[in-house]
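User: Please predict the structure of the protein below. I'd like the answer in structure-token form so I can feed it into my own downstream comparison script.

Assistant: Understood. Taking the following sequence of 331 residues as input:
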Amino acid sequence: MIDTHAHLDFPQFDQDREEVISRSFDSGVRAIINVGVDLERSRKSVEIAKRRENIFASVGLHPDFFTRGDLANRGNWGDQIEELQELAKHEKVVAIGECGLDYYRIKKPDFSRGNPVSAGEIKENQKRGFLAQIEIARELNLPVIVHCRDVYPVASGKTPEWFGAWEDLYEIISSFLRSNLKNTKNIKSDIFQSPAFPFPRFHRGNSSKPDFTGIPQGRTFFVLHCYSGEKKDTEKFLKLPNVYFSFSGNITYPKPVERAEKLAEAVRMIPLDKIMLDSDSPFLAPQEFRGKRNEPIFIKYIAKKIAEIKEINEGEVEKVTDENARKFFGI
């Protein structure tokens, strides 16, 4: 089994990190992709990967990075993105991410703190940050680990301008994959401090449509980590080339029933040769260990649940998802 998404660099593992890693490999985990969420943790991810042959790193900036108030003016992005690009050249780095869109934590403007950032501005920040990382992946021929989460409409009480993460994600990825133009030399970013950093702009007057003028269609692959899209989203993404899906421990949760049924439907819809296993440890422990710290060793429960939903042999799930991960990450 291969765990394609772990955060072993997080402080939850500071006391027993090596023991957790050894326990995982001793129990059948063959490889782990450790995923960065900001520059500091991406550096730590690389350091962990350097110490173990079968641990690999992904480096990236989580969408929450582009939601923070101190970055709302985009003033420091150029330096951060360029440092990420350099870090991504390390031999143990096999992907860019996690990056993407997360509208779940977008908060209403707080006018008591001076100049508030609107939901629209935050969305724009996240889109541009995601696009910049796609460009790094394209340049370095690396796959992209994608985080996407929307607001839950019923519980949130938020109005429609807060929604649309999956729709926006599809627009960005599909536009990238369908681009057939050849030259990137003249693309410049008006956001980043570095004038030399190539960056896909948005079409004027329509921020939901990225402009990939000059971005060639390459072999960039995407995995939608901890997938939780609706049926309509699954149908759309399945039609795109180079898009994979990974499932986490939340597919084992029996409640809320509506969400459990939605995830099971996605597992049934997606062919096994497009699926990978994803612990997201230390988060999202399977139902058997819910409320406890998650570890890569627990991906066997995800494989078991996928086999149960698809009514196939558990060994087949482990075999095919391993093959998918090795092909996707080139490991």
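That's the full token string. The CA atoms of residues 93 and 260 lie 34 Å apart.
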